[in-house]
Amino acid sequence: MTETRNLYIETFGCQMNERDSEIMTQLMSQAAYLETSRPEEADCIVVNTCSIRGKAAQKAYSLLGGYRRLKKRRPELVIAVAGCVAQQDGENLLKKMPHLDLVIGPQNIYRLPELVESARRQATRTTATELSKDFVIPPFLPQVNGTATNHKRFVTIMQGCNNFCTYCVVPHTRGREVSRKPEDIINEVRHLADHGVREVTLLGQNVNSYGQDRGPAGTTGQIDDFPALLQAVVAVEGIYRVRFTTSHPKDLSPELIDCFAQLNKLCPHFHLPVQSGSDRILARMNRKYSRADYLARVAQLRRVRPDIAITTDLIVGFPGETEADFEATMELVNFVRYDSAFSFKYSDRPNAAAAAFDDKVPEEVKSRRLSLLQQRQEEISREIGRSMVGSTVEVMVEGRSKNSDGQWSGRTPTNRIVNFTGPDSLRPGELVDVYLEEACRHSLRGRMRRAK
Ligand code: SAH
Ligand code: SF4
Ligand code: F3S
Predict the structure, then answer these.
(1) Of 59, 49, 61, nearest to 104 (Cα)?
(2) Any idea where this protein resides (predicted)?
């Protein structure tokens, strides 16, 4: 019998990191490491880090710092840092923190078991942060076990970003865009569907440019762009819902908009980060679209799919942002009426061009703008929620609701959470119709009418 060891893994950041952590957990389980929820009993700790804002990176650093005492107690413990802070800080992390063993960038996660083994046996300390534009994302079939979230999974379709928005660290930590082979993606989705997965979210920093790095059309068969990939994914039997994230507004093509008219399984939810409502700031951010371009795309999406929920990301306090620029963002938010939005205070990032810009906005101004924006968005989200009361919506069952006894919880096609009463026989991944009776702060409440 092989001896088993314990793996503790902590994940920060975006869905891309969540998926990478699943891959690392699976690879380590093949090397006889079982996941534990207690770092004190781990033989290997992996911290999968995010560097998108200063705070995210600080969180990773302070967590890693705290593990010094565990290493002191058990020198055979292997501590690995993965993700975007690992890529960004490389071997400096090993210099700054002598208790760390491994630093692994996002393109190197597949080497984790081998590197952990050599750290354990030979006490080698390694930095694996090569970042190549010729990187090939390996075909890799996910393990589907009996956990509650098994009805929905992330599928990475590409990595990296070529856009270089001036505030952003991602092109520096994830490298250039690399698309996965379409056949690997379809195989993965088929495999998931065969194991009971009913919803997939296709992941990339900018899914609209899927395939553009894979050479001229035709060299990869029929699937050479994102709309073609979407068509192939919705055609997989057993998949009921397809989502994707994220798309850059500048690359939102008429063909992709058309997918929302043609493909029923494609959920009417579009995350379309705008960042700012001011043309001057958009130009300084290097976003390559204007407010008018953006609004035209929103209008086209709504024309083909009137029920579409549009969500966004916003940054306040970008260097040089005036009150008038901020007002333009507030106006845009009022005009578009986003279903929900993530908003952030601008934060300087290493290697990102805006870190060197003049006219930094004072912290208290950023805080005030953020709270005004969030307050307004919260009102809009609640108004949209209230307008849904009295209608019947399709809900994919997720599991028992966390808050209320005996209730079920699930999501609408627009990704809103619905808590509802229904029979005990329901299973995650099932589609049911729910009559909505009440809009709460961050969810809707209702009663099941029938299974689909
Ligand atoms: N690839 C995605 C965004 C990934 S980062 C896209 O282009 O849409 C997620 C969000 O973090 C961004 O949309 C942006 O709103 C925010 N963000 C990125 N860098 C930031 C920074 N330096 N300061 C504050 N927010 C930032
Ligand atoms: Fe960052 Fe811009 Fe790329 Fe998104 S598109 S990951 S915000 S550089
Ligand atoms: Fe963070 Fe890297 Fe994702 S910086 S948001 S983990 S791509």
Answers:
(1) 49
(2) Cytoplasm
